[in-house]
Specification:
By secondary structure, the chain is mainly beta. It has one helix and 31 strands.
Length: 385
């Protein structure tokens, strides 16, 4: 049975986020501000500003949340984490409400049957998980819609905010060529050599596919950047660097042979200015996001090995890094949907939870989309009073 909800339904999509806010931990701070807001009513009970809207972890252990301000995006912990602690907040944030053209929901319930001996009837053995299938048709606005509905959940694996000199002991390689500024709380290049350091596998097990997030500030005309899939030698790794002219270059080193896969235009990143960089590497595709400007390349002869993430420098003395984070994609994102519409003289508010978009979105018409239709599955549905 398909239940047609109707047209002109206001839809708020609750998008899940896991965010590392360790740079805000200074030993006395208890209030942490997330980057996406407003924070969603994650338990979908219609009550704002509840601690249940977020989950907080300090150095891997769940921490007590004493207060949440949804609109301001602030999360107050019961006690202050120590300086440099890894503070991770899991939450959802509300998208700007959109008017959907059509929404339909089809309740389903899987059952398991058993055939009784000597009986031609199938007996119901057990009711299994309920599922609510449906589709959401909305006006096409940008490719962000496709990315939003097909991205995977990001899981924080490792982070360092460089508060203490001892944090450098978690790295191996040319560690003598790097140092930590314990006043500014930054990692910096100590001298002009070709230098690579990576996270020891005792601190972070080696892996193949993942995401590096970091901030960098270039102080002179050298090469400054990151490595991944580094095998701990000079033989095998990828590097993503900003060169002397501030162009972005992606290079594969395979059995000591360097192959430049991509070089951007000059001036991608300015001097002496902090910029955030995100490097995503999955199988043979590498994507670099420099604060919203995207560069990507597909390697025709990829280095598909497990290795270490880390830093690369060449004639880049005093170039700086901060807020080094490593993430992984682990499963499809689970969203929430809040539907508002008018039926007769009444306003109806429905919440769907555990929503996944397994097939992505279908543009219509195909070559010049005006609408997109996104099929979804949900685990829970309820009315919000």
């Amino acid at each position: 049975m398909c239940v047609y909800v109707g047209k002109d339904v206001t839809v708020t999509i609750q998008s899940p986020v896991e965010e590392d806010l360790g740079e805000q931990a200074n030993g006395t701070n208890t209030v942490f501000t997330v980057s996406k807001k407003p924070i969603s009513d994650r338990d979908q009970d219609g009550v704002a500003d509840e601690p249940a809207h977020v989950t907080a972890y300090v150095d891997g252990s769940e921490a007590t949340v004493s207060a949440v301000d949804d609109d301001q995006g602030t999360v107050t912990l019961a006690s202050a984490p120590s300086p440099g602690a890894r503070v991770v907040i899991e939450y959802r944030y509300d998208s700007t409400p959109e008017v959907a053209q059509e929404i339909s929901i089809e309740p389903k319930q899987a059952i398991e049957g058993i055939h009784g001996l000597g009986d031609n009837k199938i007996q119901v053995w057990a009711s299994l998980l309920k599922e609510y299938a449906g589709s959401l048709k909305e006006l096409f606005r940008s490719t962000d819609q496709f990315n939003r509905l097909t991205k995977k959940w990001l899981k924080s694996k490792y982070s360092r905010h460089f508060w203490y000199a001892t944090e450098l002991t978690e790295f191996e390689g040319d560690t003598a060529n790097f140092a930590i500024d314990t006043v500014a709380h930054e990692l910096y290049v100590l001298n002009d050599n070709l230098s690579i350091i990576g996270v020891k596998n005792t601190s972070l097990p080696i892996f193949r596919d993942g995401i590096i997030k970091c901030k960098t500030k270039i102080m002179k005309q050298g090469d400054d950047g990151w490595v991944f899939r580094w095998d701990g030698t000079a033989y095998n790794y990828y590097r993503v660097v900003f060169q002397g002219d501030r162009s972005l270059r992606i290079t594969r080193v395979k059995n000591l042979v360097e192959t430049h896969l991509f070089t951007s235009e000059a001036g991608v990143i300015p001097s002496e200015t902090w910029k955030g960089v995100e490097i995503k590497f999955k199988e043979n595709k590498i994507t670099v996001d420099v604060e919203g400007k995207i560069y990507s390349v597909v390697d025709s002869d990829p280095l598909l090995i497990e290795g270490r993430p880390g830093f690369y420098a060449y004639y880049a003395m005093n170039d700086r890094y901060d807020d080094f984070q490593v993430w992984s994609e682990i499963s499809p994102d689970e969203y929430g949907l809040i539907l508002n519409y008018t039926r007769g003289a009444s306003t109806v508010k429905i919440a769907l939870d555990g929503v996944v978009f397994p097939e992505g979105s279908i543009p219509s018409p195909k070559n010049a989309p005006v609408f997109i239709t996104s099929r979804f599955r949900a685990r829970k549905i309820k009315f919000i009073t």
